[in-house]
Amino acid sequence: MFAALLIRIKGYAAAAIGAALFLAFVFLKGRQDGKNAAELAQAKKQAEAIKRKKASDEQVDGMSPDDRRDELSKWMRDR
What's the rounded Cα separation, in Å, for the pair 35 and 54? Predict the structure, then answer.
């Protein structure tokens, strides 16, 4: 009788440990997927910022010194 009860308890314990391991795996996998998605979004934002900066630099490089001075004077507070 005691042996049968012990075997039954071991079975439940093994099932509980298996369920806990499964839940831990699912949690960690979801967390890693979220981290990867955030890194991908950040990389896309950085790539877009690089493209905007390059376009701006090309525009400024194409200006004459007088045009640059005129554009920069718009940003000066004390004219």
Answer: 29
Residue 5 has pLDDT above 90, yes or no: no
CB 50 within 8 A of CB 58: no
Query: Six-digit token pair at 67?
Result: 């045009």
Which tokens is 4 given? 């049968």
Q: What is the mean pLDDT of residues 58-78?
A: 89
Model pLDDT for residues 21-39, shown as the tens digit of each residue: 999 999 999 999 999 999 9
With a CB cutoff of 8 Å and minimum separation 6, the contacts of 60 are: 68
Q: Which residue has the tokens 């981290």?
A: 35
Q: What is the 3-state secondary structure (H, E, C) of 5-71?
A: HHHHHHHHHHHHHHHHHHHHHHHHHHHHHHHHHHHHHHHHHHHHHHHHHHHHHHHHHCCCHHHHHHH
pTM for the model stands at 0.57
